[in-house]
Amino acid sequence: MFRQPLHDRGVISRYRTYLPVSEATPVVSLNEGSTPLIHCAKLSAKVGRGCEVYLKYEGLNPTGSFKDRGMTMAISKAAEAGKRAVICASTGNTSAAAAAYATRAGMDCVVLLPAGKISAGKLAQAYVYGAKVVAIEGNFDDALDLVRKIGEREEFAVVNSINPHRIEGQKTAAFEIVEELGDAPDIHILPVGNAGNITAYWKGYQEYAALGKSRRQPRMAGFQAAGSAPIFYNQVVEHPETVATAIRIGNPASWEQARAAIRESGGAIDIVSDAEIMEAQAWLAGQEGIFVEPGSAASVAGLLKCLDCGREPCASCPVRGVAEGSTIVLTVTGHGLKDIEAPLKYRSFAPRQSANQVEAVLQALGY
Ligand SMILES: *Cc1c(COP(=O)(O)O)cnc(C)c1O
After folding, report:
1. Which residue, by CA, sits nearest to atom 14 of ligand 1?
2. Whole-angstrom Cα distance, residue 348 to residue 18?
3. Which protein residue's CA is at the shortest distance from atom 1 of ligand 1?
């Protein structure tokens, strides 16, 4: 009999009573969740007025993104239902998580990817975890359409965020934040792609408020990439384009739920450009020591954009009228190492050249 370590429980064992699982559910876990909530002094100073900014660093999940929280639920429920295979469309991180958790459950994992639009790191994950990968001629939204059709077959469970168990697992991040802060934040900012995560956080915050575990609920502020912003423009984007491939989605599955979360919470949806995203990624790594993938940097880019915004009053601004002493949480959804092509393409990082000599190295460094 192996011993279950005390300190690395996954989200199902930690939040079992708030999730649709029973004794009959086999728990398929990689000890996901319990990610750090990191206080950012420099970002807080930028906001000013006594506000405190924290990052929920979801890149520290087992496969490097928040997708693991939902996947432990989706795969556990698929195992309970006796499924032998799972299928998903992916911009990269869903497939990495699906492949890892399916392998752990002894299931086949089929992944449909938009050809040529996935970072090499994420693609490598799907392969190494043993998924069957199919690149389709089309974008993510086309891949998801195919998954819906193939998923009607008996042997498959669909593990995209149209699978309601994914949202259930992902809401646990909101629980962790409330526990850590002692209450919900005033504002929660996150990137929006398929809009499952903003839906999940809002559900989590509402449930904890209803249980009396928090006194307030945050304003939910979502940021889309400017070239891929169907919710912001209220219109399907046929050919979404952005460097932030994780949020390169033109027709989000949880569109209505995201709208509801924004409306009910008094929040906002806005856009950030690719340049703003890449600058935010570099700023966060260079100033706070936190390296996140471009899709994740959209939340930081959004906050920075709002701080610099000269428009007065700006109706869409999620930090409008931010009260003195507010608590702001930003979800950074995936690890920077997921996609190293983007920053390397965006700027050149050439090493300084030096001879093999102490003096020469010091000189090259300018000391
Ligand atoms: C999936 C993903 C997103 C987008 O989340 P949605 O739930 O699709 O809105 C953002 N960032 C990263 C790193 C992701 O993997």
Report:
1. 246
2. 47
3. 246
Q: Residue 247: which region, alpha, beta or left (left: phi > 0; alpha: psi -120 to 50)? A: alpha
Please give the structure tokens belonging to residue 136: 């389709």
Top mutation candidate among 93, 170, 259, 338 for ligand 1, by most atoms within 8 Å of CB: 93
Which is the closest atom of ligand 1 to the Cα of 222? 9
Looking at 57-61, 71-75, 77-81, 307-311, which range is the least confident one?
A: 307-311
Look at the block and give the residue holding tokens 């919900």: 184
Residue 320 has pLDDT above 80, yes or no: no
Q: From atom 5 of ligand 1, which residue's Cα is the shortest distance away?
A: 193
End-to-end Cα distance, the chain: 58
Q: What percent of the chain has pLDDT over 70?
A: 95
Q: What is the mean pLDDT of the chain?
A: 93
Mean of pLDDT values over 130-148? 91
What's phi and psi for 122, nearest 5 deg?
-70, -40
Q: How far apart are CA 272 and CA 279, in angstroms?
A: 11
Residue 201's nearest CA partner among 229, 178, 231 is: 178
Distance 192 CA to ligand 1 centre (A): 6
Compute the distance from residue 262 Cα to the ligand 1 centre, in Å: 17
Q: Which of 72, 27, 120, 37 lies closest to 340, judged by CA?
A: 120
225 exposure class (CB count in 10 Å sphere: 0-12, 13-18, 19+): buried
Ligand 1 site, residue 70, Cβ cutoff 6 A: no
What's phi and psi for 159, nearest 5 deg? -115, 20
Give the count of alpha carbons within 13 A of 62, CB side only: 23
To which residue do tokens 């002493």 refer?
325
The residue among 4 and 67 whose pLDDT is bigger is: 67
121 touches ligand 1 (CB under 6 Å) = no
pLDDT surpasses 90 at 31: yes
Interval 155-196: pLDDT, tens? 999 999 889 999 999 999 999 999 999 999 999 999 999 999
